[in-house]
Amino acid sequence: MGKKADLVLFNANIVTFDPAKPRAGLVAVKDGKIIRVGRSEEKDAFEGRKINCNGKTLVPGFNDAHCHILALASSLQAVDCSPPSVSSIADIKARIRERAQATSEGEWVRAVGYDEFRLDERRYPTRYDLDEAAPSNPVKLMHRSRHACVLNSMALSMIGIKNDTPEPPGGMIDRSLDTGEPNGILYEMSDYIDSKIPPLPPEELDNGVTLANDEYLSRGITSLQDATASNDLGSWNVLRRMREKGHLVPRVSMMLGLRHLDELMERDFSPRHGDHDMRLGALKVMLSEVRGVLHPSSEELEECLAKAHRHGYQVAIHAVEESTVAAAVAALERVLGHASKNNHRHRIEHCSVCPDSLLDRLEDIRVLIVTQPLFIYHSGERYLATVTEEQQPLLYRISSFLKSGLKPSAGSDNPVAPLDPLLSMHAAVNRRTEDGNVFFPRERVLPAMALEMHTRAPAYATFDEGVKGSISAGKLADFTLLSDDPMKVSPEQIKDIKVEATIVGGKVVWRS
């Protein structure tokens, strides 16, 4: 009698990321965990379901280190105004008009994804454009970056934004220079707006999460790190219910807003609360600079980081511009100057502009970087056109992050950028924009490192390297089966590799 297994994958080209056994041909699974990694010839030693992989490549399941699950669910129910679906403001108006005509008067119309850089007019839509499309419905149109949005006149009125409305902390209301009247364009105000408009109806949310789940699994993603700063215990309960209903299969590490720290401690949400299926991740804080004013202030940032660190919580700081990255580094330096630097694994999300001086300081305090290689591909042309020549070489310095020991992980920031780990790997390896231009090639990385950034490194970023991120006995049986080996095809072909199957806990949850 052979040894019992629930699943045996054999005749595979297995990339394990286990230094003791870097490559293998067989993996056997029992009760959701790996019980054997070995040679294909061992398959007859096991009883159970067997799958011949026909020489295809098996890697640890892809782990998206920075995404927004409920935002994707919502966007999949909204009007798609992203390129290439639209190419002009006229197209946007036509799409919103069509949805408004199918929506009862007074009900909200949500639209997402516009990118003024890719519009014929090369400008943001305004309230007046949206008024023409939907005069009888409030409209919220979200920018592709999710850091700006446009409201029509009815929406502004319902939310209470008028000529004399002051900006909320960290936000900005764009106004006419002549009259001071809001033109509908709002920056860094989505949380404020969402708190004042009705949430998606439960049935729409369920449907949106189901659609999102299909997207994740078809891309080979077995773990998600939700990095939404507005997440609270209500968001936690929503995702937990979605997992219990089977609407969301990938494992979730969910960040909650750092401002909820006191409530978390009162509710006994200790650091890394939860289990392998759903766990509390880092506490997230958005660090932004609007009109030269840092929000939160340096003093507020340091105070909340120190409290989280003191109680053993990991923190993740959203910092994009050089000034905000510098402020994040300075605050962490002060906090860690009075406490242990060992294994805190505090994170900076994006770290988009990072000169050598900041790299050195990041290395000294042992911070992790979560970066977005896909931005090079999808936004590279914008960077070349709008970012100063002095700062362009400082953008998304993936190779430099690796050399500095910052253990960079890759996240999509979806729905800001598409879900596509293989295209993200392609971007990290080739540093090409969507139009084919090379973007500072000295920051390229080798395919093996790009793959590690999407598997092993994200597991380390959530303290999960003991259970995921590599293929070895005792770990969770989460795998992605690929049509080709990213380390053996030409670098330009990485983006053409297909996901053949996605396996979570030893169960095949998606096949091509």
What does this structure look like?
- This protein has 512 residues and is an alpha/beta fold.
- Helices cover 30% and strands 25% of the residues.
- α14 packs across α15.
- The longest helix has 17 residues.
Summarize the structure.
With 512 residues, this protein is α/β, with parallel strands linked by helices.
Helical content band: 25-40%
Q: Can you count the helices?
A: 16
Radius of gyration: 23 Å
Strand order of the largest sheet: 8-15-16-17-20-21-22-23
Report the strand count: 26
List the helices and strands and how they pair.
Layout: E1 3-10, E2 13-15, E3 23-24, E4 26-30, E5 33-38, E6 46-52, E7 57-60, E8 62-67, H1 69-75, E9 79-80, H2 89-101, E10 109-114, H3 127-133, E11 139-143, E12 148-151, H4 153-159, E13 172-175, E14 182-187, H5 190-194, H6 202-218, E15 221-226, H7 233-245, E16 251-257, H8 261-266, E17 278-286, E18 288-290, E19 293-295, H9 298-310, E20 315-319, H10 322-336, E21 347-350, H11 356-365, E22 368-371, H12 373-386, H13 398-403, E23 409-410, H14 421-430, H15 447-453, H16 456-461, E24 479-482, E25 499-504, E26 507-511
Helix pairs in contact: 1-6, 2-3, 9-10, 10-11, 12-14, 14-15
Features:
512 residues, 16 helices, 6-stranded mixed β-sheet, globular, alpha/beta, single chain, 8-stranded parallel β-sheet
